Amino acid sequence: MRNAKRIFAWLAVFVMLLSACTDPGASDDTTTETTTSTTAAPAGGTTDSTTGSSDTTVAPFVCDEPIRIGVLQPLTGGLAASGTDAKDGFELYWANHPMEIGGCTVEFRVEDTAGNPDTALQKVDELVDNYGADIIVGELLANVTAALAERLADNPDVIMMSPIGSADDLTQRTLYPNFTRAGGWTSSQTSHVLGQWAFDQGYTSAASICTDYAFGWEMCGGFTQVFTEAGGTVDPNEQLWNPLGSTDLGTYVTQLDGFKPDAVFVLEVGASVSDFFQNWSDFGLKDEIPILAGETTGDVAYIRNIPVDQVEGLISSGHWAEGRDAPETQEFVQVFDAATTRLPSYYAAATWTAAQYIDETIRAMNGDLSDKAATLETMKGLELLTPFGPSRLDDYGNPIYDIYIRKAVVRDDGRIWNEVIETFENIDQFWPKTPEEYLKQPVYSRDFQGNAGS
Amino acid sequence: MIRRISLKTRVLLVLAAIGLGIGIAAPYLFPKYIVGLISLALIGGLFAQSVDLLAGYVGLVTLGQAGISGAAAYGVGYMASKVGAGFPAQIAVGLLTGILASLLFGLMAMRSNDVYFIMITLAQGMIVWGLSIRLYKVTGAENGLTGIPRPEPVNPYWKYYYLVLVVVVLCWMLLGIIVKSPFGASLKGLRESETRMRMLGYNTTAQKLYVFMLAGFFATIAGILLVYLNGFISPSSVVLAASALGVLEAILGGVGTLVGPMIGAFIIVAIQNIVSIYVDRWPTLMGLIFVVVVLFARRGLVGAISDVWNRRQQEVSLEPQSAQ
Amino acid sequence: MTSALPILHVDDVTVRFGGVTAVDGVTLRVERGSRWAVIGPNGAGKTTLFKAISGEVRPTIGRVHLFGADTSRAHPNRKAQRGLGRTYQVSELFQALTVEENMAIAAQARTPSRFHSWRPLRIRGWIDERITSALDQLQISDERFTVVSEMSHGQQRSLEIAIALATKPEVLLLDEPAAGLSAAERRIMKDLVESLPRDLTIVLIEHDMEIALELVDRVLVLDNGKMIAEGNPDEIRSNQHVQDVYLKS
Questions:
Q1: Full residue range of the structural domain in which residue C210 is found
Q2: N or C: which end of chain C has fewer CB within 10 A?
Q3: Domain of C225: which CATH number?
Q4: Are both C76 and C173 inside the same structural domain?
């Protein structure tokens, strides 16, 4: 028993550490409530404009029960900041649109997954079985999204929407009948475009550094395949993979410098993003080698926390560009900025758009979502003008929309955001290939990056 | 004296009967998701008991136990989703990987104590986690392995719940026998003084290996039950936090008891899944509860309750017998 | 069994820790059934010699023969299995357990049942007899169900010996059994040790020369790790060198 005290002391320290680690992102000062299940229409019938027309009162709406939506996002843990953006986007949509649609009440509940798939699986059971959700919207992480989609796959009473989690195969090789990515994207969809654009700029060789996990492989693979098939070269030995969560990328940066490529494709996540840009500028490479960033790495959620001189002018591609000069985008940006004093990240735009898809689907179905297959078909038939721009779904449930080449620009108020420098219109997840052609190849991985000619 | 013990035993028996009664009636009393949560808590409790067999009875705090249960779960998951083997093969491979992992880790850890044991088991957990991330062809990396259906006869959630209940209760009874056995007594001796144990003739290294493997066996069972419950295994099940949770559940409920870790697991599952619906900063709440328990009830809830009970009994027994 | 072979033979043992020589060329031949004392001032190397015998440290030079076999490099548990018992100067008891549990752990230590994990431990039959007799021997039977940490220091010293006895050793090393006891308690402890079975071979370390000399047949005196005298108690009492060493300390 002599050791007991020492062990307890150690454990006490450990407990403290653990609870500190899982503490909710203390910086999020926005909201305090988790459950926003209002039955009455909030904020009256204020603005109803962004979505266009379609308030038909011709056919009678049938609603025995409220339409319930369960939202799963990481609100605590390392992803809390992004998860909170996602939550805010969804909540703000409904705060600005009536939750009474033709006599049908919409309710929703946001629950915290802590970014853990096991927790998410428990929560989704609760949302489906207990809360009675018709639609599940989640999650931020690709692996959690995949786990949720798998769990709900054989439940015909629920539609699963993934506006953020972007694992390619969910709308490609592993289709689930009740799954759609309305409001979302596939990882390689936006980097395909960047590969073409890079070649168009006259770059002939590229290196890459991507986080060593499925999302990194897919983002990197999308760029590499299109760039090399267009005529550029990417030496597989010059594709670097750093472990998830690395925070000293200095050695990788020196290696990249040694390769002397025309451009470097970068996909980092989490704390690695700021570390990469710090190193890149410390080694004096910012004006030496152009960086082409994958969508999330260039997202305003990250670059707003990085010293401006390190990221000003950063080129990235994305389906989201908060600096896009179009009313459907800027109205949303203003609503979000006013409510949270942040420029919205793609996480926020995605859940807002998912809510918009749900809203329009309810209207089109006259409030009767009992037949989920028919509901999903209806959703796939919608053509919406969303904050992302014009959006519709392909046969696989993945959006077709414009992809933007973005440049990080400092606004008049001193904040940085992404403005559009070039638009590739109507891009689907297979572009520039056909679905049949594309699906013959395996999903991108460390071993398959689609490097042409190597 | 004798009557007092029997009163305590009687109370415990009644409590156990109530617990078992609720356990058996649960699918009829609660909605599906609550039954799912009870399954989860039972499995978590078994896992925490396996941690407590080391931490509470031998004084060897492990931070790598999820590596063992995870190895078992990945064994099942690999056979199910990548090989497409039948259930006997899935379960056999799961048992094999789990037991193999506990043998290997036991051999690595059996010569260490205290903080060194913590560090070694921590490293072992990290090894499994690292492998789960790196060997993506086997483990699916971050995406994990999906498509792990339950065996048909126990596929409905409530049937699987009963399977979990039966297996966990059986394991609990086995653990109960182990800790009361001659070997169990020697484990307590090991916790108190390894020097003395060696001088009495105990091969303490062999003892530690044996108990490590016993604990690993129960963690393996928990891992297999969990992977079929979730139909899913991913690196998040083998991270350090998963191992630490077992330790924390044991501390919360009361180390050195078997009922303690089970109670701890139920509390944690309730906080994670039910309280978190209403309380935004539930991880902070969890951390606070732990700190309070560690500071004010070092023997956990079970220890605190039994202290209060004993004190009351003393008062009661002192009053009428004060003449003696 | 009055063979020529001593039951314990320490053969020219030296133990060094780094540059420090704790035990320096000590030789000791202990016949079966005899009682020995190892005395000497603090830091003389008595406990290190014990550790070399028990296997807790390995001799740097020299050999330790137990029961006729060379056990110089054997682990303590191997030696204990052969029948070596040892007590500690600072009690090494299972503080959180009861006296009975302490004794049960010791009593089963040299039996196969120590690894039995699939049946409950029951204190009855031979194990009960062993516990009872050892507790009676040390006169702490009343404390059988007391938790060790609640016992008095004197009782703990007795339990220290009782535990060693419960393993049924043939050779017993007693490391200052009277350490920390009052003068009165020392006399009781002396009587207890004296009353131990005569067929048990005992080697004891004792700081208190008077007690030690009353208990044993043979005495080894150490100073600075070296043997400075060996003989029967009377010889030691009259040895001037020994007296000098003790007066000096």
A1: 1-83+169-249
A2: N
A3: 3.40.50.300
A4: yes
Angstroms from A4 CA to nearest CA on chain C: 11
| Whether C97 and B198 lie within 8 Å, measured CB to CB | no
DSSP states of C65-127: EETTEE-TT--HHHHHHHTEEE--SS----TTSBHHHHHHHHHTTTSGGGG--SS-----THH
- Cα gap C239→B178, rounded to integer Å: 57
End-to-end CA distance of chain B: 14
Q: How far apart are CA A199 and CA A226, in angstroms?
A: 9
- Among A268, A222, A218, CA closest to A245: A268
Q: Into how many domains does chain C fold?
A: 2
Contact predicate A76/A114, CB 8 Å: yes
Whole-complex ipTM: 0.91
**Fold type of domain A26-185+327-400:** Rossmann fold (3.40.50)
Pick from B33, B37, B290: CB nearest A15: B290
Cβ separation A16–B287 shorter than 8 A: yes
CB atoms within 10 A of CB C31: 18
Which residues of chain A neighbour B59 with C-beta distances below 8 Å? 3-4, 7
Distances (CA, A) of B38 to A110, A124, B32, C220: 23, 15, 10, 68
In 3D, which of A81, A86, A92 has the Cα closest to residue A71?
Answer: A86
Backbone angles phi, psi at B156, to 5 degrees: -60, 145
Mean pLDDT of the region C62-75: 92
The residue written with tokens 């029997």 in the block is B6
Instruction: Determine the distance in angstroms separating the CA of A16 from the nearest CA of chain C, rounded to an integer.
Output: 28
Q: What is the pLDDT of residues B170-220, one digit of tens each?
A: 999 999 999 999 999 999 999 999 999 999 999 999 999 999 999 999 999
What tokens were used for A435? 């679905």
From chain C, pick out residues whose CB is under 8 angstroms from the CB of A1: 95-96, 149
For the record, the structure tokens of A342 come out as 């942040």
The encoded tokens of residue A324 equal 């896009």
Distance, in Å, from the CA atom of A132 to the CA atom of A128, rounded to the nearest integer, reads: 5
Please check whether residue C95 touches A, CB under 8 A. Answer: yes
Of C56, C80, C105, the CB nearest to B186: C105
- The minimal CB distance from B237 to the residues A118, A123, A128 is found for A118
Omega cis (within 30) before A331: no
Do A234 and A208 touch, CB atoms closer than 8 A? yes
Would you tell me how many other CB atoms lie within 10 Å of the CB of residue C98?
Answer: 17
Q: Which residues of C touch A2 (CB under 8 A)?
A: 95
Rg of chain C over Cα atoms, rounded to whole angstroms, equals 18
- In this prediction, residue A55 has a pLDDT band, given cuts at 50, 70 and 90, of very low
Token pair of C176, please? 């200052």
Chain B residues with beta carbon closer than 8 angstroms to that of C117:
177-178, 181-184, 210, 214
Mind listing the domains of chain B with CATH numbers?
31-318 (1.10.3470)
Strand partners, C9: C29, C65
pLDDT tens-digit series, residues B25-45: 999 999 888 999 999 999 999
Confidence of residue A52 (pLDDT cuts 50, 70, 90): very low
pLDDT tens per residue across span A133-153: 999 998 998 888 988 998 898
Between helix B157-180 and helix B182-192 the angle, nearest 10°, is 70
Query: Residue with structure tokens 């619906």?
Result: B277
C137-159 as b/e: b if 16+ CB within 10 A: bbebeebeebebeebeebbbbbb
Residue B166 has pLDDT above 50, yes or no: yes
Q: Which of B181, B186, B202 sits opposite C120 (nearest CB)?
A: B181
Residues 6+ apart with CB under 8 A from B202: B186, B189, B190, C77, C80, C109, C114
Verify that C153 and C173 share a domain, yes or no. Answer: no
